[in-house]
Every structure is written in structure tokens, then in C-alpha cells.
Amino acid sequence: MENLILSVWIITYNQEKYISECLNSILMQHTNFEFEIVIGEDHSTDITRTICEKYAKEHSNIILLPLEHNLGLVKNWERTLFACQGKYIAMCEGDDYWIDSYKLQKQIDFLENNKSYSMCVSNRKVLLTDGTFYDDISIKECYTKEDILKGVIPHTQTMVFRNLNREAMCEYLSKLLSGLFSEGDRVLSYWCSKFGDIYILPDQTAVYRWNGIGVWSGHTAIYREYFFIRMFCTFHKRIEYPDRKLFGDSVTTQCLDFIYYNFKRGIKNRYKLETLKLLYKELTFIELIVNVFNYIINKFHKNKK
User: Which one of 22, 218, 252, 276 has the lowest number of neighbouring Cβ atoms within 10 Å?
Assistant: First the structure.
């Protein structure tokens, strides 16, 4: 398509139960511009690819990328992003879906009229395994680079961002996501935040499906929280600590909050000690003493109130 305004970037693997709902929610979008849907299906062992092939035959704006073997999460993520040709790129993973038929139009209108912003996201609903929903609402109007460095990750299935220098972006993501570090949404948000703030549309435009499978399968909530802190540290290490004080303050708060609330709830697990070890490893001795002291003082004042 010439002068393509937007590409919708979908990655999917073994999501035969959900991919149709995802694609239908994108096809229902009302826009005054054309858009393509680029699907990176990663050689599923179920019929996900067959379903995607059917949609690609029926809709000329759907591009199903060819594949001979499984690439893995990061490589599939990268090659699908690189295939997106639009001026803007929207994300939706194959087990999530959109619920606002004007989602894309609202976000593109905002970005077209507000050149200083690099990305537009929105609020969302979360679908739990028992079929109930809860509202996931941000109290902020926008995220800055500082927010991303503190650990904020905008909602992936709501992202629309400017396709700025796609080759450099893909090279940057590939470098940071190598090995075991696979938090693409965090890295992508940081890349975009270097070019402008991230606006949060107040509408709830998408549903994140918490289905208990995938990366977190078989892991407890305690482990997920501990793992999140570890990935936060890995992220800062890979971007070479652009703000050391901000990192130190943030990781201290995350680690000590984790330990404090686990003790307060009487939860016994080995991750309290592992988190303490992580904090000791990540900070210098002086940073550790100062940050722990400040944390205790702040916690004391909050508890007095």
C-alpha cells in the first residue's frame, strides 16, 4: 500500500482459541485511513497458522509472514516488527483483543495532532481465568522516559507508536533482547520515550487476557514479582544505567517493598532472601546504606500518618 498510515503488529503462537477474536477486533476498526495487519505466527503446534491463513485469504490487508521453523519469542517479535511498513505501528498479541471500534482512529488523530508525543496507549480491561474482568486504569495522563526508567511498562495491546527509523529501532531491540532478556514491551517503550512522551488515552480500548499460560505458566505470583525486579535490573544494565540514582532509588523501593509486604502478610518463601541478595549485588555499599536508610525513614513517616 502506498502512503500506508498504520501497520498492526501481531505475534502469535499456539493461540488457536483466541486468534480469531483478536483478528476480528482489529478488522472491526472504523478508520478514515487504510491499514495493514502483519501476523508473525511462530510455527504453532496447534491450528493457529491454519486460522491465520484463512483470514489472510479473505482479507487483502492481512499479511501472514512465511515461516519454515519456530523462531522463538524474541526473533519472531523482531522480524514481525521489521515487516511493518506503516507510518505508525499498533500492537496486539494474539491472545488479546480490542473492544473500541474507534481505537485506532482516536490514537492516530492524537499523534497526528501532537507531534511531540512518540506513542499513544490507553487504559484497558483485564480478563481473568474465571471469566471476570477488572479495570486497569492509569492515574496519569502521560508517561515520560523517567517513568519507564522507574519500571512503568505501558499496556502492550494498546500501543500505537511512530515508526521512527525502523532499522535502527530493530537493531536496538535485537541488541537489548538477546539471551534470556525478553521484555520487548519495556525496551520498546524506552526506545520511544527517547523521542517523546507517551500519552495515555483515558478510554478502555483493549482487553488483556490473563490466561495463566505462556511465560508465566506454572509460576506463582510471588515468583513473578521477584522475576519482574530481576528483569528491571537486567534492563538497566543493558542500557548502561542512564540515571544511576534513579535506578538505585527504584530498585531499593521495589526490593524492600517486596520483602516488607511478604513479611507483613506472613508469607514464607525463599525469594525474600534472593531479593535481598539481588539488592546487595546491584548497589555499591554506600548506595545500599544510604538507600536503605532513606527507605526506612520514609516508611516510618508513612506509617505514622
Answer: 218
Dump the DSSP string for the chain.
-TT--EEEEEEESS-TTTHHHHHHHHHT---SS-EEEEEEE---SSSHHHHHHHHHHH-TTEEE---SS---HHHHHHHHHHH--SSEEEE--TT-EE--TTHHHHHHHHHHH-TTEEEEEEEEEEE-TTS-EEEE--S-SEE-HHHHHHT----GGG-EEE--SHHHHHHHHHHHT-TT---HHHHHHHHHHTTSEEEEEEEEEEEEE--S-GGGTT--HHHHHHHHHHHHHHHHHHTT-SSHHHHHHHHHHHHHHHHHHHHHTT---THHHHHHHHHHHHS-HHHHHHHHHHHHHHHHHHHH-
Q: Kindly state the average pLDDT of the residues 27-35.
A: 97
- The answer to whether 90 touches 105, Cβ cutoff 8 Å, is no
Buried b or exposed e, range 266-298, using 16+ CB within 10 angstroms: eeeeebbebbeebbeebbeeebbeebeeebeee
Q: What is the mean pLDDT of the chain?
A: 91
Q: What is the pLDDT of residue 129?
A: 85
Residues with Cβ within 8 Å of 4's Cβ and at least 6 positions away in sequence, in order, are 34, 35, 36, 85, 86, 87
Look up the pTM and report it.
Answer: 0.91
Has residue 281 got a pLDDT over 50? yes
Residue 154 confidence (pLDDT): 95
Tell me what the mean pLDDT of segment 173-192 comes to. Answer: 84
Region 228-255: mean pLDDT is 95
Q: For residue 144, with 0-12 CB atoms within 10 Å meaning exposed, 13-18 middle and 19 or more buried, which class applies? A: middle
Q: Would you state the pLDDT for residue 214?
A: 47
Q: Domain 6-214: give its CATH code.
A: 3.90.550.10
